[in-house]
């Protein structure tokens, strides 16, 4: 039974959502958090029952001792460029007797274009897990829904503050709220066997759909839709662009099956919460 879980990088973002989900589920007998520095967020997690420790992630021996006794380790660590530390973390998990590792994917399919510096390492990490025979669960979910309002997202330039949008037209992208990514993982861990790469999406909307939905709430944008994405991104450079530009949402690369989410947060409901 994968009933104990340690989240490395659990103080914020998707890591914190995973910790909160696991703490609220009686299936998990032990929920741990490692973090690089003390924060108020960690105090909150302690008060909810998490075992929290602040450590230096570069200290493999310390990592190993903190991982001992946990069946699942989730790592939200830096996987950009040099992944020496990330691989050391995985080796420490193996030595500590961890049964399953959840590497930092939480985005687009890294096999779409593994030459991207922030994607290539993810393939190496998966290969390493396979080599040392440590089972993994990884989740591809498209773009974090909370990033909708972030200027410069995914190669588009959408400024909600200035109401200017230069965006891809009608090609769909997959959007998932971090909370749904966390819920899905925590649910899946109860029955996991073998190695699994899941593809989920909370919603599928084009950038145009989203800009128009926001316009209904805060007024008209100055809009420029880029129509030549198909031509531009046939030689794909950026997988986010690929997903939006070529209409490849996370669900269907190579025809792979999308995993169902129960009542996911939709873009519409998320915008309602944001603007009302
Ligand atoms: N799909 C998307 O749209 C999208 C967008 C952005 C990022 N991502 C991916 O999703 C992951 C989680 O993103 P997030 O925004 O939810 O979380 P985040 O706020 O970036 O980070 C969550 C935790 O990860 C740890 N962390 C962050 N940078 C680190 C580093 N350089 N070295 C070691 N630990 C580090 C921190 O833990 P402590 O401070 O507690 O140690 C932090 O609290 C990212 O790492 C990235 O791979 C996806």
From TrEMBL:
Entry superkingdom: Eukaryota
KW NADP (keyword) present: yes
Keyword Metal-binding part of the UniProt annotation: no
Residue ranges of domain NmrA-like in the record: 3-219
Annotated GO MF terms: oxidoreductase activity
Keywords on record: NADP, Oxidoreductase
The protein's name: NmrA-like domain-containing protein
């Amino acid at each position: 039974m994968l009933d104990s879980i340690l989240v490395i990088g659990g103080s914020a973002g998707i890591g914190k959502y995973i910790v909160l989900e696991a703490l609220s589920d009686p299936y998990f007998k032990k929920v741990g958090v490692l973090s690089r520095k003390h924060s108020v967020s960690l105090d909150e997690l302690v008060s909810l029952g998490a075992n929290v420790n602040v450590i230096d992630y570069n200290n493999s021996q310390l990592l190993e001792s903190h991982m001992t006794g946990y069946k699942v380790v989730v790592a939200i660590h830096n996987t950009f460029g040099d992944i020496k530390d990330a691989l050391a973390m995985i080796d420490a998990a193996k030595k500590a007797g961890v049964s399953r590792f959840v590497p930092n994917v939480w985005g687009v399919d890294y096999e779409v274009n593994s030459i991207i510096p922030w994607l290539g390492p993810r393939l190496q990490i998966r290969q390493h897990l396979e080599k040392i025979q440590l089972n993994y669960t990884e989740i591809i979910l498209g773009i974090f829904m909370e990033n909708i309002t972030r200027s410069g997202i995914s190669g588009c330039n959408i400024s909600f503050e200035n109401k200017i949008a230069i965006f891809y037209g009608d090609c769909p992208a997959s959007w998932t709220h971090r909370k749904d990514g966390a819920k899905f993982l925590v649910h899946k861990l109860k029955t996991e066997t073998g190695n699994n790469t899941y593809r989920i999406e909370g919603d599928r909307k084009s950038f145009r759909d989203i800009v128009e939905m926001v316009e209904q709430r805060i007024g008209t944008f100055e809009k420029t839709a880029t129509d030549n994405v198909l031509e531009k991104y046939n030689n794909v450079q950026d997988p986010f662009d690929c997903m939006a530009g070529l209409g490849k949402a996370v669900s269907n690369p190579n025809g792979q099956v999308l995993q169902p989410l129960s009542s996911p947060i939709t873009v519409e409901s998320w915008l309602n919460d944001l603007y009302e």
